[in-house]
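haha ok so turns out i had the wrong file open the whole time. this is the CORRECT one, sorry everyone. sequence first:
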Amino acid sequence: MTFVLKCTKETILEKTGKKVAIIGAGPAGLKAADELICLGHEVHVYDQMPEAGGLLVFGIPEDRIKKESVREYVKQLEYAGVIFKTNVKVGRDVKFADLIKDYDAVLLATGAWSNRRMNLSGVDLKGVYYALDLIIHNNYEKLGYPDSFHPPLLTGTVVVIGGGLTAVDACTLALEKKAEKVILMYRRTKEYAPAGRRMIEKLQSLGVEYDELSQPVEFVGDEMGNLKAVKAVRTRLIENDIKGHPRSVPIESTEYMIPADSVLLATGLIPSFPTDAIDVVKASSQGGGEMFRTNIVNVFIAGDVKHGASFILPAMQSGIQVAELIHEYLVKQKD
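then structure:
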């Protein structure tokens, strides 16, 4: 996938005098910045990471997204006039309320970085990790950024739980770290895995064991609080859920144990908001009004933070759509 600026510096429309703050430099935020700078607005992008790109740089592996392609796109945006403020976390370093006051429009494009927590006994044992956290910190190290968190070695047997792309990336990470055995556990069959059959079969060709129709019920530790096994149960598929997927339900008396040194949880991601913007997001999720709008007239929302964890292209399309809406709003304000 390549990223190309919509306009050139020479074809940017006449300056409007309007300022837009974009919170989040992932695919939705970058694409919105592209559209808005070309329309003549001043654009500032805030991001908590040390460089722009979001999960394109810090979450998705090189074989799916070339980091240099993303970096070149950011350079194009900077050349066009977009101002990036990295290592800035809104809600900690900058108040969300101040951005609303200081800018003509604010876009929330903070993505879905928060882990869907598992409520199982033993989830806090040493050796149980959320997969995306390890992937991000591993990329920090690869990219040469200082990081106070040092990812575990992932030796011995690593069990990855989930069926999406984060689970696939977690398996790949475990293989890179030279784990002796990697097991991918998923509660449905590979036909229904969000990552797709082909991705899972590729992992299997690399030596990953695929344990389908199975889900954990407990993480078992030793007296020192270290993980030693995953207690799991077999599942079966029944009628479809509201998303059209067959539901998986446990089968009684099918519990079994998998000895494990580490568990990587990849059981879903949920939208991530600045801590002081939650009231705005709650209000917008209650419905009413246009898509991408919130209960504050100059605050908009787009990308995974709006519709949940998805793929790159839908997030980018969301960025384009919200930019059009922001432009319409700013033009009306100018009049």
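The chain has two domains: 9-112+271-334, 116-268.
again sry for the mixup
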